[in-house]
Design goal:
Largest sheet: 2 strands, antiparallel
Helix content: 55-70%
Shape: flat
Radius of gyration: 31 Å
Strand order of the largest sheet: 1-2
Number of strands: 2
Distance between the termini: 25 Å
């Protein structure tokens, strides 16, 4: 993300390839690598022969990446600071003086908190002991069908969300809450009935999702406005010389004679201005096309919003299993 003109992975790979074609060692020294984002210019300090050697040994080898990160933490005397939770000091040294711009200290503290909780879990690290990936996927699908959407999208890979969904199911069914798919839990799943979804999920509206930051609903709202605009413009084109009709409607309004007269004048001026143009049959055809396409855009936008609301209620967007 530091290189705004190379915001995609493919773009960054192309950039580093181009740099390597000039000087591979310099290119590798200039970038950060692996899980610990280890800078290439630290290669010799961390025990590698060169930056190219470091990158070659790191590529596809998570163990080497982590080992390099640990050696960097040791060389910079950050292990004790990590253990004491001195996140600002760690981020300042490891990520640089501008660490606060990316909230590295806050993210370190949050990650530590989450992992402390995970490590404190009793025996729930493997929520589906002995089950194959296919069996785990069936288990996840069953939990989702029963309304335990915290399981996320069934993918056959057990993790924290599967533990959470199993725990919710066990608590609801009066079973010991272990977060693991033991025999009693599997048996209970066979005869369980769906649980009602939370009221706030059932009653959610498209406006609620937009306010919560749904980009899908916001894009659909924009599309709906465009569709309405097309219908309005098309209607004006098709109506052509219908200014008198609008003026007649204004005559029946009860908002005051002055306002009516003023509106009549505006409508008459508009008619005089666009009358010659609207007389062209092609304009009428264009207006009909605009109305049709605008109505279609508006209808599609409304369908997208309705589908997004339905997906939210069903929990389909709860995310992956882990």
């Amino acid at each position: 993300t530091q290189y705004k003109d190379e915001g995609t992975s493919a773009g960054r790979l192309a950039l580093i390839a181009k740099a390597r074609s000039v000087d591979a060692e310099v290119a590798n020294r200039s970038a950060s690598w692996g899980a610990g984002q280890t800078m290439g210019f630290l290669a010799e300090e961390l025990g590698f022969a060169s930056a190219c050697d470091m990158v070659d040994r790191m590529t596809g080898n998570l163990r080497v990446q982590i080992d390099a990160m640990v050696r960097e933490l040791q060389n910079k005397h950050l292990v004790d600071a990590l253990n004491r939770g001195e996140w600002r000091a760690v981020a300042r040294t490891y990520n640089g003086p501008k660490y606060a711009e990316n909230n590295y200290d806050v993210r370190l503290a949050d990650a530590d908190k989450r992992w402390q909780r995970k490590l404190a879990l009793p025996a729930a690290h493997d929520p589906a002991p002995g089950l194959s990936a296919a069996e785990i996927k069936v288990l996840q699908s069953k939990l989702r069908a029963l309304g335990y959407v915290a399981v996320g999208k069934p993918d056959g890979s057990p993790g924290g969300k599967t533990v959470a969904a199993l725990s919710q199911f066990q608590a609801h069914e009066g079973l010991p809450v272990t977060g693991a798919a033991d025999g009693a839990t599997i048996e209970a799943l066979r005869s369980a009935v769906p649980v009602p979804q939370p009221v706030d999920r059932q009653l959610v509206t498209a406006d609620d999702l937009a306010a919560a930051g749904s980009q899908t609903v916001k894009a659909a709202n924009t599309g709906g406005l465009i569709g309405k605009g097309k219908v309005l413009i098309g209607g004006l084109l098709v109506a052509g010389g219908g200014a008198e009709q609008v003026t007649g409607l204004l005559d029946t309004a009860q908002n005051g004679i002055d306002k009516i007269n003023q509106a009549k004048g505006i409508m008459q001026a508009l008619k005089d201005l666009v009358g010659p143009i609207l007389a062209d049959p092609a304009i009428i055809v264009a207006g009909v096309i605009l109305i049709g396409s605008g109505a279609a855009v508006y209808w599609i936008a409304e369908r997208i919003k309705a589908r997004r609301v339905a997906d939210h209620i069903s929990g389909v967007h709860a995310g992956p299993a882990e």
